[in-house]
Predict the structure.
Amino acid sequence: MATISSTGQVTIPEPIREALGLEPGSEVVFEYQGNGKAVIQRAGEPPASRFAKLRGSLKSNLKTDEIMTILRGED
């Protein structure tokens, strides 16, 4: 939890700063999403898609064509 100062400033918690790669001087964008929810992200960077986050995470000796054959259910 963070507290807003009288000048409207708030300290972003360390785990959030680390996850976003924020350092002193970094610019962020706030987006209000309604229902009392807001999103913060690094300025100038589109949010990573759920697929982009998984890119490179497969640990396998199979080649791409072999994986695609399995996924398609082909023999």
Notes: The chain has one domain: 14-72. The radius of gyration is 20 Å. The beta strands are 28-34, 37-42.
